[in-house]
Amino acid sequence: MSLLKLVGVLLDYPQDALWQHGDELLAAADDPGLPQARRAALAGFVRELLASDPLEAQDRWLSLFDRGRSMSLLLFEHIHGESRDRGQAMVDLIEAYRKNGFELDAKELPDYLPLLLEYLSLRPQEEARDWLHHVSHIIGLLAARAGERQSPYALLLELLVEYAEGGLDLGALRKRASEEPRDDTAEVMDRLWEEEAVRFGAEAPGEDCQPATRLPSRAATPAAPRQVQP
């Protein structure tokens, strides 16, 4: 299992089957291409995850990645928000997958980071680094936000920035993250739901049916494991 494949698996929602492949995950964490300190930290992350109760691990994942927009693993959400440009960008990404002989095998958005990592793990290293370099500013900010929330997932995101050989100033990003208002608190999420409730008459949405902000998912039931099949 390559490093990108491993990080994608670990960033994804922790399905129960994850605990059945502990030895494989630990073996992949011992990647000789990583500095010794990073290898030890990655192995520690895997051991801690495997030692966790699956329900608790799943709840931690949902609390970090599924509450609010700032930690979304949907990359285009950080670039395009809910604009029409996002739809075209996803069409282009799907075409890039297909051009290289791959087809999505799940009802998952193509810009979902673990899915992209699975695809890139099957591409030449130089190409994978280039892809990640182009989105490293997003991944770096996600890493900074995760670190600000004292989440161990920050390690995985930092590894991706380092893999892309990006010249990001993580210190500056951490400072920015520390100054951002949190969007994952109960108060903020309740306010979003109130603002986005169905309205009629003069308060109804415009003809494009686009709400001002995205509805929080309220920890929806996750989909089946995502895969990119040749």
From TrEMBL:
InterPro entries named among the record's database cross-references: DMSO/NO3_reduct_chaperone, NO3_reductase_chaperone_NarJ, TorD-like_sf
Molecular function via GO: metallochaperone activity; unfolded protein binding
One Pfam family per UniProt: Nitrate_red_del
Region of interest called Disordered, as start-end residue ranges on this chain: 200-230
Top-level taxonomic group: Bacteria
An individual GO BP term: nitrate assimilation
Keywords assigned by UniProt, alphabetized: Nitrate assimilation
The name this protein goes by in its record: Nitrate reductase molybdenum cofactor assembly chaperone
